[in-house]
Structure formats: C-alpha cells, structure tokens
Amino acid sequence: MDWSNTTLIFQFIQTATLIVAVFVAWLSIKKQRETAKKDKTISLLMQDLEDDLLKEGMKILLEIHNSEDDDVAIYANPKHKHDDEAIAIRNLLNYYENISVGVSAGIYDIEMIKQSQKSMIIAIYKQSKPFIKKTREQNRNPKSYIEFERFVDILHG
User: Fold this and answer.
1) Which pLDDT tens digit goes with each residue over 35-63?
2) Which pTM value belongs to this model?
3) What crossing angle do the helices spanning 52-66 and 84-104 adopt, rounded to 10°?
C-alpha cells in the first residue's frame, strides 16, 4: 500500500471540505445580511405609518402644493425659517435624506421601498423641489438634499 497516495487523497478531501465549508459560511452570512436589511426596511416602513412628524410634513407640503396662494419655496427663506410649515418641510426632507443615505450604504432594501412607497416619495420630491432649489440658493450649498435627489433618480429607474 502506497501511503503517499493515501495522504495526498486525504489532503485533497480535507482541502475540498474546507472550501465547501467556507462557501457555505459565505452564503449563510450573505443570506443573514439580506434578511437583516429587509427587517430594517420593514421596521422603517412601519415607523413611517406611525410618525406624526412625517404625517404633518406630508400634510403641510400637500396643502401648500395644492394652494393657489402659497408657494413652498418661500419657506426656504431665512425670514420663514422658524415657521411651522418650514420646520415641517425640513423635517420631512431630512427624514428622506437620511433614508436615501441608508439606501446608498446598503442598510435598507431599495426594492422593498420601491414596491411600497415609490409613488409617494417621488410625489414628495416633486412637491418640495422648489423648496430644495431655494434652500440650495439661500445656503449657497448645491448639495443640500442631494442624496434624496439621487434616491428619487434611482426610484425612477
């Protein structure tokens, strides 16, 4: 009996087993991350339904958007910075800016958000676009709410 062949076969089996174990571990970790991302996304979406600040911001933004006598851009002016409307709009936009950063970082599942809130998020962006533009001008910061803008572009795609 040639022990060198037996040792070689044993080493081959051992190496193959190690490769398979590493692959299975990698798949398990990947699946666990995907599940965690979806769990975080579900929690986020459920939180949206219960958040009074978000509801108020959406309500005010829609009222201003539907008004013939009001313009959302004026609330970006420093003179209106402390108005309830301006605060509500900023809270809403900051929330979606943070979500957008979370999507970019891979924390939230973009497909789940698309399926559940795509139309609403795009509508919020369209209604608030004059406010965002004016905020960028007022602050001389072309990157204000840029992640939200990028997120909306992704939702369109």
Assistant:
1) 887 877 777 777 766 788 888 999 999 99
2) 0.77
3) 110
